Amino acid sequence: MAGAQLNVLVTLDQAKTQWYHFMAIVIAGMGFFTDAYDLFCISLVTKLLGRIYYTDPTSKDPGTLPPSVSAAVNGVALCGTLAGQLFFGWLGDKLGRKTVYGFTLILMVLCSVASSLSFGHTAKGVIGTLCFFRFWLGFGIGGDYPLSATIMSEYANKKTRGAFIAAVFAMQGFGILFGTIVALTVSAAFRNAYPAPSYAVNPTASLVPEADYVWRVILMFGTVPAALTYYWRMKMPETARYTALIARNTKQAAADMTKVLQKEIQDEEEEVQRQVVAGDQWGLFSSQFLRRHGLHLLATTSTWFLLDIAFYSQNLFQKDIFSKVGWIPPARTMNAIEEVFRISRAQALIALCGTIPGYWFTVALIDVMGRFWIQLMGFLMMTVFMIALAVPYEHWTHPAHHTGFVVLYGLTFFFANFGPNSTTFVVPAEIFPARLRSTCHGISAAAGKAGAIVGAFGFLYAAQDPKKPDHGVQGQVARGDLQGERRRRHRRCSGQSLETSIFCKR
What we know:
Elements: H1 7-14, H2 19-40, H3 42-54, H4 67-95, H5 97-116, H6 123-155, H7 161-193, H8 211-220, H9 223-235, H10 240-246, H11 250-261, H12 269-278, H13 287-316, H14 318-325, H15 336-369, H16 371-390, H17 393-396, H18 402-417, H19 420-431, H20 434-462, H21 471-479, H22 482-492, H23 498-501
């Protein structure tokens, strides 16, 4: 590789683990903390959205989002993420990692706030606004994937590079857990402040007007970690590999790394310029790239695609799986806010016992076991536990077997994260040349999000039982134009917004 013998890069590769490595992990990792919060917190509130905007009080069950609406709410951020990974991955190689890094964070902050303030006079208006802003939220999140991975890869030393990149990605687990903690706290506070009967006792009273604030507060909390991280991101210098090998400013690269490593690095600008000019300059669509890295790119994209079909469908629809097997009580036996509390508590347990430990096992062992064996083991064990859950499905629906179900279900998350969910993130940040690293990582991550979209949309429709469709499906067929009914309801509650009118007594 051009510049492989440069003093600044050799010094960086051989540097001992020190404080700046941990600072880089935290600063880059907080982006992933925020990404995970914003992507997965929507699964905590979709049932509440269904109750607020799609409930028919004459039905025996509370409202749920119709499949098309649920698919949009859950999947639109993934579509934005896919687009953002491709765009910002390419831009990171053109403009530099640091410049683009700050912009993605600002976009995430603004769209988190806007998502929570979604407005409209009809259910379609509110959901449409929410989906619009969550698309652009996902667009910003998409930029964090290639940039965080690339920055950590280019800051780390050679000996512990895999562990450092995996540690950045492991912050995703804490983001998922933080989302459940916020939802637990908010729902518990509202549940105590505004007690309500279950839906079975009183359908109208089970949905207090203040429930509309619950999902908005939960979504808005995603701005907090992102805003706190912005200042520190802007203080990070550009990576030495980008500055020296792509921007061709080795004097600046040496100066930046001298401050970071607190060690004088001799500049060798003339030699660097000679190596850069003489080095390989082939691009992404060249025959040289295809020959050298074509199989690498195929491997990183295909494994990430296959993993995310299962990983995201499991994460986004945990609540539905828990409800189907009876771990969460039937919706009619709870009020709206109590349901959010129960869902959050169940998902917090999975995050604590399966998701987070899996990430950190990878951090501890990736430079010992190697990327290949961790990925192979993870895929194998996920397959084993999913088959163990799927084949005797009826067995797990009995109350006496719920504990066994939760244990096996948690193990699928453990081996996803102590396995391919981590390695698919790490490998693209290491295997491609510096001038195409961000672009190729973005392509690999985008393939993963394509799998996530397949999982998110496919799971929802595959889960529909033609003989017992979800209430949202029944409501669409039986009630026809639900918006017409809501407009009539609105007229009966004159002078109030639709969000308030749904709680009016009839």
